[in-house]
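Homework help thread (please don't just give me the answer)

Our assignment gives two proteins as sequence + structure token strings and asks us to describe the second one. The first is just a warm-up. Here they are:
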Amino acid sequence: MTAILDIQDATVEYSTRGTLVRALDGATLRVEPGETVGIVGESGSGKSTLGLLCGRLLPANATVTATRALVDGAELLGLDNEGIRRLRRECLGFIPQDPVAALDPTMRIGRQLALALRGLPTDTASLVARLDGVRIREPERVLGLFPHQISGGMAQRVVIAMTMARTPRLLVADEPTAALDSNVRSEVAKLIFGLATEAGATVLWLSHDLRSVGRWCDRVVVMYGGKVVEDGPAQQVLEHPQHPYTVSLAAADPARATPGERIRTGSFGVAEVAALTRAEKR
């Protein structure tokens, strides 16, 4: 079976005011169709850059090299403009961290949803059905509202409806519940994974929330310093981590702390991680 995502030795550098910042440093990841993969790591570990690379959505100041970068069998870095647009339209779906920012503030919800459904039915009944499918109350009323007139949770549901409308084969969700109130995070996560299962989509779930990743994902990939440092079944990685960074990440998870107990963290430096990573490669 052809992997839905096959990235090998990917390096991404951002040029900022004459300075190069390396966001990915030889990252390698292979994902099979139908997998649910949680990618975890602290801010700056390379999660979001890897997610954006999947759709070649990196900013203009990014330089990308890779031994291999395939999405659904297509050579990502070699596609022309029409080819990458087709890949995004027919294969990929993205759910961002900030749903309100992802919507056009000058356009009503119904109009934005209709644009996302280009080529599919866009009559009022069809639009209502799309919003109803993501559990939005009073969908007819919501179609006439602007993004600033709805809550963050509702905006995220609208984005989910727009993203899933074209039944993506690979869904990249970058901290999709981080900007939401705690009481709706679980509900939205359940919605996303439920729709992905119905569509048969592969999911890349980029997150800081280890508990959520452990609940919804079958496999966990740990990133540090622009590299994948640990990869395996969710229970194994989260309960019995092998890499020192994963050990520290799990120990620092507030959800694991006993009330009144100080959160434990490991202590290791970049050089130590680099040395261990080189040893693993050997």
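The one we have to describe:
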Amino acid sequence: MQLINTKSVVIPISQSSLEKNTNGKLYGSGRTAIIFSNMDTNDQSEWLPIVNELISEKHMILTYDYLQHMDDQSRTLEDAISFVKTSGAKRIVLIGASRGGVASIKVAARSIDNDCIVGVVALSAPISYEGFVFYNNDELCKIRIPKLLINSESDDGADDTRKMHEIFIEPKETIFFPGDAHGTELFAKERESLVGKLKDFIESVSVN
């Protein structure tokens, strides 16, 4: 792993009436920021296997905590985006797993006029959960930036991944791995392949 400055950070939260800040970890610096959004485990450390592989002098990486247990964490992600922008980021890549993938897709759909978000990656992100639909077809069609969907062939949400791929407009790509690993569980067996794909994706959307 490269010797990149890493520090604990406090992220101001504008959406919650209960707490004013949440905790995060910022790796490196640069004009491109990669924001990792957690699964429902809300455990930043689950990203470490690939954060350590993706660390670069070219960009900063942010992981952060959710404050409350909610299915929709997209407002917290928006505050994380504001934080990296104040830290100097001009381009932002959103990467989320499961619940964090939902947040990343929702923010990308709302940010059609926000050109700082240049790419979105979702691992095992569902379209709906326990009857609650996170986004409709029109919202998914609004996402014009490059999109990368990743899942396992036998994950419970694999059909949602396939449906999203059909709905998304280009540019888009979907990758399925064997097995039933969900979200960051994929790192256990597929880390090398995942890291290679993520490096290529980040490089492709970070030009200019």
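TA reply:
I won't write it for you, but here's a hint about the kind of observation we're looking for: The mean pLDDT is 93.
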